Structures are given as C-alpha cells and as structure tokens.
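We now fix the convention by which a protein and its fold are recorded. The integers have meaning only within a learned vocabulary of local backbone shapes. The record below shows the convention in full.
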Amino acid sequence: MSDQVISIIALVLIFALATFSSVHLGVLAIVAAFIVGSTVVDESTDDIFSGFPGDLFVVLVGVTLLFGIAKSNGTVDWLVNAAVKAVRGRIALIPWVMFLVTAVLTAVGAVTPAAVGIVAPIGLGFAASHGISPVLMGLFIANGASAGGFSPIGVFGGITNNVVERNDLPGNPALLFTASFLFNVGLCVIIFLIFGGRQLLGRIATTDGDGAGDGVAERGGGTEASGGTPSPEPPGLDLPRALTLLGILGLVAGALFFDLDVGLMALTVAVVLSLVAPQSAKGAVDRCAWSTVLLVCGIVTYVSQMERMGTIDYLGERVADIQAPLLGALLICLIGAVVSAFASTTGMLGALIPLAVPFLLTGQVGAVGLITALAISASVVDASPFSTSGALITANTPTDQRDLVFRRLMTWGLGIAVVGPLVTWCLFVVPGSL
C-alpha cells in the first residue's frame, strides 16, 4: 500500500472517530500528522509543524479578538443599527447587503479571509439581534467572497487567469467572473429558501422617533416582536467606538491597498483599543474561538502533510490516466472541491488547473468551460468550517449556536463539494464537448 493511500485512509479515520466519539477533530488531525509523519514518511517534528498554518491562526485569533472588543464596547451594535437604517429596516435584505459588501471587497482585491473577517462579525451580530439563521447569514457572506473573488483584479481571478496564461491555455476572464458571480447568486437564492429566508419577508426592524429601538415588526401589522416593549437606545459614537470603526476601516484599507496581513492588523488594532479603553477589552481573549482555532489549524496541518507526501499529485495523476476526458474533467472538479474544503482555495487554483492540461490538449474538453467549472467548484466550498471563511463564520457565531453552525456548515460544505462540481460540469464542461 502506497504512502498516499495510507494518508487518505487516515483522513477518513479522523472524521469517523470525530463523528462517533467525543475526541476533538483538530486534536485527532494533529495526532494523525504525528503518527503518519513519524511512521510512514519519516518526518521530523519540524517537518510536521511546518504545515501548521501560523498565518491562519493569527487571522482567526486576531479577528475574533478585535470583534470581541468591538462587541463589548458597542461598536457592533452601532454597525448593526446602521445596517438596519440603510435598508429601511427590511430584515430580508440584510443578508443580501452583506453578500454584496463582501463581494465588492474581494472584487477590488481583498483576500477572502480579510473580507470575511471584516463582514462576518457585523453580519452575524445582526443575525443574532434579529432572529436570522446564522447559517443563512454566514453562507451569504462566504458566497459573497467567492462571487467577487474572480473579478479580473480579484485574488482568485488574478491567480486563475495567470495560471491559464502561463500554460498557454485559452481564457475568458469576463466569463469567469460573470459565471462565478451568477452561480453564487443562484446558490444564495437556494440558501435563502432552505435556511429560513422566507420567514424574514415582510419583517421590519423598527426604530422610534429618537432613533432608538431595535424591535421587529410585521409589515402592515405594526406588532413588535418584543411585545411592544421599546428596545434599548442604540449606542452613539464615543471615543472607543470611533477608534474601533477607524480600526475596521484600517483593516479594509490595509487589505485592499497595501496587501497587509489582516490577522496582524487586527491584533494591532486590538492592542491599541486595549490601551485606550481597557474596560471594553476585559475578557476579550477568553471570547476568542479557541476550539475552532484548534480544529481548523489541526485539519490544515494534516492536509499540508498530505500535500508534502504527494497525495494531491497522486490523485491528479490517477485522474490523468483516465481515457474518458469528460469523466476525467468531472473528477478533477470533484478533487478540487473536496481538497479546497479543507485547504487553501488560492493554493488549489494554482495546483489543479495544470492538472487539467492533459484533458485540454486532447481537444475533447473545452478549456474555458473546464477552467470555469474547476474555479467555481474549488471556491463555493469555502463555507466549510475547515476552510478559512467557514472557520471565521463559526468563530463569530454566538457561543450557544456555535456547535450547530459548525455541523450545518460541515454538512453544507461536504454536500456542495459533491453537488457543485456536478452542476458546474453540466453547465460549463459538457456543452463545450458536444
């Protein structure tokens, strides 16, 4: 049995044990990396830890710490109230606003973790205040990041178009962006219907004449969900909140224009806020989603080991041996989706498109169609809790709902990892080969 097959079996065992026992999945993944690395491929401790995602660790801790402070000092409540006013209280529109904001951020060049890290705490804060499913809100934010990411100046689009050009393949950046955006919009319509969006139609978040209030009223009925009791007056902009908003805007500017690490920026802002207003920072470290951080970092550590072992290349080579180009194209999309659900979409785009070259050289599969299908398949799984976007969503979910959201996102991520490639294959690959 080859080392690559052993690593795949170990991955299956990790999930089986985590499903049927109380052992933490992240701990299992790290132990698996230790056992496989020590007994199968003779890796040293330094080799094993070389796959630990230090940058992802800093992103998760930095963003959740910053927004823990923002929640404590009332900045999140202020932003939620501003979002309500922007859509005149129409609660059903808020998820779409978050989708578009995240899409715009990634479309103009923000990396996905930065965009999701900025928007998720605000969107999920609104969801918690107004009875919106955190799964619905989280998926809208994650899909918004994927929708905008394939613009010609977006990170995903830039990587994909660059790989296509380097391999002398025909490309269509405009079609890639348009197809990805529309696919994610269609996906969000389905998400809206599945996860309680219809119950939001007609609901209005009301405010009283002084701008106070946060209650929810039915359109035309005038009955407040809170039973008629006025909600507390929303916070004004004192110095700590103003500084927090400036810090969040700094995250956006740093990500868009200076290519700064969002995790390091978030930690910097958190330190400044802790010095300026120490009262609002009390307990913020305890509110970091440490369980989620351990889980995601553990899984990524093991998947990185699989990449070093050549497991991903091994799967690609097995696909390349298939004599039926259409079937091979479908398998490449499936591999891209499944692996991207547990690893970096950015890395997968650069690694998997070259694997498609043998099929494209046969002329039996259209290059533009397959690249579009592969790109969408690898990105729509980003809501998986093992991917950065899904991890940020889980981490920013209220503690009492975090386990439920984790399970729902895991189910959604694994499901879309199968359904997404099938649908994109039918839409973009099959017509080009007829």
